[in-house]
Amino acid sequence: MMNSYSDSPLSGNHRYRDSHRTNFYKKLTAAANLLLYVWLIVSFLELPVYDFNVIRRWVAQTIVALPMIFLAISTYGYACSFVDKLFSEERFPKAGLYFQIAAYFYMIIFAAIAVFSILKIAFHSGIS
Questions:
Q1: Which of 14, 28, 35, 122 has the CB geometry, 3.0–4.6 Å to 65, for a possible disulfide?
Q2: Hey, CA dihedral for 31, 37, 41, 42, is it positive or negative?
Q3: Buried b or exposed e, range 32-53, using 16+ CB within 10 angstroms
Q4: How far is Cα 91 from Cα 74, in angstroms, rounded to an integer?
Q5: What is the pLDDT along the chain (128 residues), one digit of tens a residue?
Q6: Crossing angle, helix 62-86 and helix 96-123, to 10 degrees?
Q7: Could you tell me if 94 and 87 are in contact, meaning their C-beta atoms sit under 8 angstroms apart?
Q8: What is the per-residue DSSP string for 70-108?
Q9: Of 71, 80, 67, whose CA–CA distance to 106 is shortest?
Q10: What pTM did the predictor assign?
Q11: How far is CA 67 from CA 62, 63, 118, 121, in A?
């Protein structure tokens, strides 16, 4: 129930609409993560042997590299919603924004390392 005009979806403060959009993206990334992690576990268990070269050849396939990149991006999206909730203004009124910026900075670095590592393996043609 809305308490005042400022809380309504028609006002300049769009908390009502933004919260529904945030919940939708959170559910979407959670479903994508679940499907991609199930795919990763099943396809990893189907490998004949767990040798370093076999796993590198497996990741070098396009059908494996693309879902792994999607997994890294989807995990980043879900982690962003977690950081928003963890370092909210209610919990950390003064330092919450700085904690969020630091967490986003490190998450971007780790996501970029994951994506570029997968791309390096996928585009490396001389895998032995």
A1: 122
A2: positive
A3: bbeebeeeeeeeeeeeeeeeee
A4: 26
A5: 445 544 444 444 445 445 667 788 888 888 888 999 999 999 989 999 989 888 888 888 888 889 999 999 888 888 888 888 888 878 888 888 888 889 999 999 999 999 999 999 888 755 55
A6: 180
A7: no
A8: HHHHHHHHHHHHHHHHHT-TTT-TTTHHHHHHHHHHHHH
A9: 80
A10: 0.70
A11: 9, 7, 10, 14
Tokens of 6: 């400022």
- Candidates 32, 62, 64, 70; CA nearest to 46 is 64
Cβ atoms within 10 Å, residue 109: 10
How many other CB atoms are there within 10 angstroms of residue 60's CB atom? Answer: 17
